[in-house]
Automatic annotation (TrEMBL):
Residues 1-33, 119-181 form the T-SNARE coiled-coil homology domain. Gene3D superfamilies: 1.20.5.110. SUPFAM superfamilies: SNARE fusion complex (SSF58038). SMART domains: t_SNARE. It is found in: Cell projection, Cilium membrane; Cytoplasmic vesicle, Autophagosome membrane. This is Synaptosomal-associated protein 29. Residues 44-97 are annotated as: Disordered. It comes from Mohoua ochrocephala. Forms a SNARE complex, composed of VAMP8, SNAP29 and STX17, involved in fusion of autophagosome with lysosome. Interacts with multiple syntaxins including STX6. Interacts with EIPR1. Interacts with STX17; this interaction is increased in the absence of TMEM39A.
Amino acid sequence: ELIRQGEALKRTEQMVDKMDQDLKTSQRHINSIKSVWGGLVNYFKAKPPESKPEQNGAPEYYANSRLKEAMMSSKEEESKYQESHPNLRKLDNSDDDFNKADLVSSVQRDAYPKNQQLRAYHQKIDNNLDEMSSGLSRLKSLALGLQTEIEEQDDMLDRLTKKVETLDVNIKNTDRKVRQL
């Protein structure tokens, strides 16, 4: 959604730039109509540069690279996450979790209590904490990507606001000049 909004902002900014260019062209025409001197000045004055035509009417917008990376890594981990998420995976009441305790190295076994059931619960808690840690790390990278994208779009909005305010003043001035003709 944020990327779509960024694309819309980019299109809006390009339309405002086009409107500004059209307004400058209108001002040149008004000067030509207003007086002979204005026509001569416009004749010798350099024409405003033409804007590049848009490709298929759709300007390109590139989202923040940090957000793209976060989204890609999140999508890569999504299936793994869904398999390991307690509410998304199938309930398995077998003793697989207890059998995992047999695979733990002797160094790690010393960190757990000697009681086998207590050891299995400690390992299960550790595994759950690891899953939470990886999920939080995913959320953090997504949040940082979103933050950067929002900051860039905020700057774009500030720029767009200034352009629109300037364009509004110019349109009012041009309208006043046309009415005087």
